[in-house]
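Could someone model WQD with this protein?
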Amino acid sequence: MSPSPKQTILVTGGCGYIGSHTVLRLLETGYKVVVVDNLSNSSYESLRRVHTLYAAFAASSPSAILEDASLSVEALIPFFQVDILDRAGLVKVFETHPEISSVIHFAGRKAVGESGRIPLDYYNVNISGTVNLLQVMEEFNVRKIVFSSSATVYGNPPHIPIPETSPIVASMSPYGRTKVFLEHIIKDLCTASVLKQEQQLKELKDQEVAKTNYEWNAVLLRYFNPAGAHPSGIMGEDPQGIPNNLMPFLAQVAVGNLEKLSVFGNDYPTEDGTCIRDYLHVVDLAQGHVAALEKMEQQQAAGQYGCLAYNLGTGTGYSVFDMVRAFSKAVGRDLPSVVTPRRPGDVPNLTADPRLANKDLNWKAQKTLDEMCADLWRWQRNNPRGYNSTPASIPALD
Ligand code: NAD
Ligand code: WQD
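Reply:
Sure, complex below.
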């Protein structure tokens, strides 16, 4: 299903890792976008790269639903450097773009370890910021949201692969708890909005037409472990400081910015003793957001409202050692690693059961582990210092 007629999607956190790949995918699918980001963990350069890639895409596949390939970055991607805690700033965005019909909400803080040291900052930005956004959306009658949740809401799950019906627990970190609480907040909002609509309809006389449809549609996407980069090698993850996550850390080892990987524990109850995760290519993940928007459209067209939750993962788990081997293969040499004690809060296995998303969203991860590693390596090799490295031009694929 393609968007009709070109809808405008507000993407919060659109300069970040997943946000920038999603902005590109939205444009390639024929959506218009508006981006809000305070640039606290990203740079505007990511949108310039989106622009470069989009222009190449649109020039090579002309289509009536696509934006003009010759638009400037500012015209193609209206950008607001606004904090989601800044209510007046958000109001301005919706006033300037009354055509916004849905929001994809990525903005927030995401470092698990840091969240244990500064929990109030995490609760403030992630929870207060999101509540602020939801209130402004209500004010402007925009009642469709796709929210970035995380597999961390499952804690240490009783069954692998994990279905969406697995218990949502108080999670392993303040960061994880913000995702749990936000899932509840968004569900509560959807439930209340359906009740409010029923009440309005009850109060109306026969001939009267409801003034506002109060009902919300929300899709909670529980990402497993996003990894990789755009295959062009000009867009990818650009973590500030020393990366917390396995794949960006390995990528920094490969370019010589870091000496060796510490493998956090080899005494887990898994085949090789290291933790198992479900690594998902970021381009597949971006497509999952387009699928979620389309699902909300179908729901609305059928007069159905409420909150849906989906796992976005491949359904296949890999251990830390598997990932070191796969990335070493992409790089062409063995990467140094040493086993160190477990990292507090890690659980042995988080592997998705993605069948609900496969069926309901008509979405399935397409890319292989080797593609994920090759694309990450191309990005890191071409941009050893992330977006500070080089001007954007698309190199020939190797
Ligand atoms: P990211 O840090 O690259 O992107 C988040 C973006 O939000 C950044 O551009 C940052 O500048 C912006 N931002 C942060 N605080 C903001 C604020 N107060 N106001 C406006 N903008 C703000 O992270 P990402 O990896 O792209 O993650 C996107 C979302 O997905 C986050 O909500 C994260 O919690 C969630 N998520 C990520 C992963 C992962 O492994 N990357 C896994 C599960 C869920
Ligand atoms: C993967 C595996 C580590 C680094 C986290 C968040 C989750 C989501 C994604 C985001 C684990 C091991 C890691 C290293 C290692 N969040 N590892 N050495 O912990 O599955 O998920 O990121 O916003 O909510 O919890 O991902 O990449 O940190 O770790 O051995 O230097 O790699 O122990 O088994 P994780 P990760």
